From TrEMBL:
It comes from the Bacteria. Residues 24-273 form the EAL domain. It comes from Sinorhizobium medicae (strain WSM419). Residues 257-281 are annotated as: Disordered. This is Diguanylate cyclase/phosphodiesterase.
Length: 281
């Protein structure tokens, strides 16, 4: 199984591997007990506003451990959770934990949460979010839901209705991984995203004229439609400089900060405290 691969990570999904179905069944079983057995946790990655220089949001990212402590990467367990439906309980758990964290983290204006199309399509999802907000007393405006453009994500009218219900709760809707699939453009036509996150693959060759031109075009397209732009995967000072030249609104990536447990949320300098509280983003 995953342990044979050594290191501290389960091996990546390979549909031709005879062990794969065993492994994905193991993970499916693990996901059923993960919340009860304390095997899931959240880490948070900072998002920086380039105009103020401040971290004004963090993205919540799920982590899963096997019973022996080995970690399973989200790229492996999220698709399994989506296939088995476990994503519904896990997704509610994520939103509840994030809300509880927000209660004690006044200096973090917004937490963004990845939400699967399976969740958006499941009846009563928006109502369950509303009840978590009600129970915890957290304002919907402190949450952003990230929706990934994906091939499998068809334009169901129930998804659009769900998104409009979430907006009514004050929750911002962001488009994640923009530029990786075919669906992104049609989503832009149908949903008024607050922010569009440009996929980090666009940074790979942004030091070549072709790569830079491609990035400039995609930024122009998103900006002309009135969305704020976040570029994911900023890893170097050179990339950050380019983002400033392009007047990108927000950046996220290892250069800004790695995903880390909640206790490491970056507090603002004391003089900023009133402003941050008065003007959440
Ligand atoms: P995502 O939403 O696009 O999240 C960003 C991913 O890029 C994270 O991987 C993050 O650790 C990684 N990353 C951030 N900055 C950099 C960088 O500078 N360089 C590189 N190479 N990588 C960077 P992670 O945590 O492994 O998550 C992978 C994906 O799993 C996420 O992609 C998201 O689609 C999904 N995911 C994670 N947590 C959840 C969750 O709670 N619910 C759902 N539905 N999906 C989740
Ligand atoms: Mg995301
Ligand atoms: Mg995503
Ligand atoms: Mg992304």
């Amino acid at each position: 199984g995953a342990k044979a691969n050594g290191r501290n990570c389960a091996r990546l999904f390979d549909p031709n591997d005879p062990q794969t179905s065993d492994e994905s069944e193991n993970i499916a079983a693990l996901l059923k007990i993960a919340i009860d057995q304390d095997l899931v946790s959240l880490v948070y990655q900072p998002i920086r506003d380039l105009s103020t220089g401040r971290v004004d949001a963090v993205e919540a990212l799920m982590r899963l451990k096997m019973l022996d402590g080995t970690s399973v990467p989200p790229s492996l367990f999220i698709p399994i959770a989506e296939r088995t439906g476990a994503i519904l309980d896990l997704g509610r758990w994520v939103i509840r934990v994030v809300c509880l964290e927000l209660l004690t983290s006044e200096h973090v204006p917004v937490v963004s949460v990845n939400v699967s199309p399976i969740q958006l399509r499941s009846p009563g999802f928006a109502a369950s979010v509303a009840s978590i907000l009600g129970e915890t007393g957290v304002a919907g405006s402190r949450l952003a839901f990230e929706i990934t453009e994906g091939l499998e994500m068809e334009m169901h009218s129930d998804i659009l209705r769900c998104i409009s219900d979430l907006k009514t709760l004050g929750i911002r809707i962001w488009l994640d991984d923009f530029g990786t699939g075919f669906a992104g453009l049609s989503w832009l036509r149908l949903i008024d995203f607050d922010t569009v996150k440009i996929d980090r693959s666009f940074l790979h060759d942004c030091d070549t004229p072709k790569g830079k031109a491609m990035l400039r075009d995609i930024i122009g397209l998103v900006r002309n439609r009135g969305h704020k732009i976040l570029v994911e995967g900023v890893e170097t000072e050179e990339q950050l400089t380019l983002m400033r030249q392009f007047r990108i609104d927000h950046v996220q990536g290892f250069h800004v900060g790695r995903p880390a447990p909640a206790r490491s949320f970056e507090p603002p300098p004391p003089s900023d405290r009133r402003r941050t509280r008065a003007s959440p983003v």
